[in-house]
Design a protein that fits this description.
Elements: E1 5-13, E2 17-24, E3 30-36, H1 38-41, H2 44-58, E4 68-74, E5 77-83, E6 87-89, H3 90-97, H4 102-121, E7 124-125, E8 134-137, E9 144-145, E10 152-153, E11 161-164, H5 171-174, H6 181-197, H7 207-216, E12 217-219, H8 230-236, H9 247-261, E13 277-279, H10 304-307, E14 312-315, E15 336-338, E16 346-348, H11 352-359, E17 383-384, H12 415-418
Antiparallel strand pairs: 1-2, 1-17, 2-3, 3-5, 4-5, 6-8, 7-10, 8-9, 11-14, 12-13, 15-16
Helix pairs in contact: 4-6, 4-9, 6-8
């Protein structure tokens, strides 16, 4: 690591970056340094995303967002110097302790909504709100939004694909539309449900099945949920993004609920056999785009493969040529790879072993659980690796194919050209 920063232990690792604890020798302050992994540096899309994350973070300043302090180089690889949050991510906390009391769930969601209102007011969409990207400080401070690896600026042009986490993706994104502010609000509604119950409503089975539920199903209120909470969740999960509340209004509504929820008991965790969604009556109101599976050489290994939420690539609506209609979710869809960046050509993975890997363990189980999730396809989630990291018996996940790079994007600039213009702090 550059001389200014004294590196300590690795505290998190994902498919794109590894995060290290460090000390700024000039100020004596502890910081976190996120470094682009060598495997990810070979993927142009991930390099561009890493640089875009730095550019977006450089323009943000909010107490509910992990801030960028500068850039650096670590053994020839680009790195982001970030605020160090002493604590853990919300996913880890939920997996260990289960649901939180309703008043605390509303309080946490209100803090995240505040941060989203700030982002949206500056024309930025996070695009991957989920418990793994929400950091809970050990000192009881406010929750911080992290990992802007798939964030985008509104009006910055249409990307070739949208990356999304199946459990938290909005219906319009499943249909192939770019994520807007409403997509962040939708994801936060799913997070609120998970805070209250210990699991997201559409979890279980193949990622394609999870994606389909966002467009064809509606969540079921969990047993024991205080009646005042459900209308807020329903509004966040409205099918049309313009029917969802703005993030600032959502924050105010959630804070207004806290007095009524004070003293309400924590709900029992929802098991994998409990009903959390019903099919919507009639035909689905949102069309589903074909999903582009993108196995990357940077795919995470144990324990990340059993812990990190996966991202899938969805081609934007209007980019696909006329051709077959999207394949309905089913037990064989995970065997197909839709080439993105200009087509809907579908190829089949030819080895049964790869099918088993992509299908995950126990595809027919109602709830795969953190140890039996479908594997990560594209992941930018960082995973705790220090002493507090969750243990896992999962074996390392081998690669199931080469990365599919959009054929029409042309050469991409190097990382040095993509990093923000702010001066390095090394």
């Amino acid at each position: 690591m550059a001389e200014r920063y004294e590196r300590g232990e690795e505290i998190a690792r994902g498919a794109v970056g590894a995060v290290w604890r460090a000390v700024d020798r000039q100020t004596g302050e502890p910081v976190a340094v996120k470094v682009l992994r060598p495997e990810a540096a070979a993927e142009p899309e991930l390099v561009a995303g890493f640089a875009a994350e730095a550019e977006i973070l450089a323009a943000l300043d909010h107490p509910g967002i992990v801030g960028l302090r500068g850039t650096t180089m670590v053994d020839g690889a680009p790195g982001l110097v970030l605020d160090l949050v002493e604590g853990e991510d919300l996913r880890h906390r939920l997996r260990r302790d289960g649901p939180v009391p309703p008043a605390i769930a509303a309080h946490i969601a209100a803090q995240v909504a505040d941060a989203l209102a700030y982002l949206h007011g500056r024309g930025v969409v996070h695009g991957d709100i989920k418990p793994a990207n929400l950091l809970v400080p050990a000192d009881g401070g406010r929750v911080r939004v992290a990992d802007f690896g798939v964030a985008r600026r509104l009006g910055a042009g249409r990307p070739a694909v949208i990356h999304a986490t199946p459990e938290y993706v909005a219906p319009e994104v499943v249909a192939g539309e770019p994520a807007g502010p409403g997509a962040d609000v939708y994801a936060l509604g799913i997070v609120l449900y998970e805070l209250l119950t210990g699991r997201s409503p559409y979890r279980g089975g193949q990622p394609t099945q999870v994606l389909a539920r966002h467009t064809t199903c509606t969540p079921v209120p969990p047993p024991g949920l205080p009646a005042v909470v459900w209308p807020v969740i329903e509004d966040c999960l409205a099918t049309a993004p313009d029917q969802r509340p703005a993030a600032g209004l959502l924050a105010a509504r959630l804070r207004g609920l806290e007095p009524a929820l004070d003293g309400a008991p924590t709900l029992a965790p929802l098991g994998g056999d409990q009903v959390t969604w019903w099919p919507r009556p009639g035909r689905p109101t949102v069309a589903r785009a074909p999903v582009a599976w993108v196995p990357l050489r940077a795919a995470p290994v144990s324990p990340a493969s059993a812990y990190a939420g996966g991202l899938v690539a969805i081609p934007l609506a209007g980019l696909a040529r006329s051709g077959p209609t999207p394949v309905e979710p089913g037990p064989d869809l995970h065997r197909r790879v839709a080439l993105f960046g200009g087509g809907v050509a579908v190829v089949t993975l030819v080895v049964v072993a790869a099918v088993a890997l992509i299908g995950g363990r126990g595809a027919s189980a109602p709830d795969a659980g953190p140890e039996g999730r479908s594997p990560t396809v594209v992941s930018q989630t960082t995973v705790p690796t220090g002493p507090s990291a969750p243990t896992s018996t999962a074996t390392a996940q081998p690669d199931v194919g080469e990365a599919l790079v959009p054929p029409d994007l042309g050469p991409l600039p190097g990382i040095g050209d993509l990093m923000p213009s702010m001066p390095p702090t090394t």
